[in-house]
Amino acid sequence: YDGQHEAILSLELWNQVQALMAQQTATVRGAQKSRPIGNLLRGMLCDIEGNKYSPSFTNKGKRQYRYYISQALLQDRKPPKGIVNRLPAHETETAVENALKKELLTVDSVRSIFSLDMDEQQGLLGDIVKNSERLPMRHLIIKSVNKVVIGLDCVKIFIDRRKLLAEICQVQNLSMPQAGGDGIATIEIPVATIKPRTDSFVVEAKKDPAYDPFDRTPQELKNWVRGVIWRDRHFSGTNLRQIAEEEGCSDALVSYLIAESFAVA
Fold first, then answer.
1. How far is residue 84's CA from residue 72's CA, in Å, rounded to a whole number?
2. For 122-147, b where at least 16 C-beta lie within 10 A, e where not — what string?
3. For residues 36 and 240, which has the higher predicted lDDT (pLDDT)?
4. CA 106 to CA 91: how far, in whole Å?
5. Helix, strand, or coil here: 24?
6. Which helix (H) or strand (E) holds 54?
7. pLDDT (average), residues 215-226
8. Model-level pTM?
9. pLDDT of residue 244
10. How many CB atoms lie within 10 A of CB 70?
11. Alpha helix locations (H) across 104-213?
């Protein structure tokens, strides 16, 4: 008959191609979609009245500029007075990353953010600090930050302690403690807003005021003195393990306090 000819593809090959296409396009119900790396804070940002911020961008020439824009502004609602309505994405994301990174640089700050016992978890705390520079901050933010609230003079980051600790332990191959690390931790970033010639706002962290490096708690001063003493012993030829055994503590704590002894300047 007219229009009938031998098949170009076999029925078996046709079915295989259709099955492969179905696998590539199907979405498994309940599966989590990965967050686009360019919009780190998607779904997290809101102002003090709960108005969400949505990612957006503009093109100028060959360059693309990303922003987070308040839904109040997009929906022609009156936003809170004095609140930044359009945030530069890169600067805002970097500020959040740096704030989290800062909290993981010292044993005291790590103990505080996770609400862990210093005596029971000193080895874990030391290990986290020792390898903190290699932690994937963007991944940790995606996994553990509940929300980031834009206020009049500060940005507050709300973090699920347990999720953050679990991710760090997994990345660093550490044992997850049974106790501690529960609840929500809050990191506060003081900010100043500047309105340049364009319509957008720039958020900049305020400079830290001058501080006295010796203005510390008695425990912090004690740890610093121990670090100086251990540093001198180590530089004189005593290895870290021997110092740890004599002092009844972990190698990680000795290593950390020696490193911290250089921080007072």
1. 11
2. bebbbbbbbbbeebebeebbbbbbeb
3. 240
4. 24
5. helix
6. strand 53-60
7. 77
8. 0.62
9. 86
10. 24
11. 107-114, 118-130, 137-144, 161-172
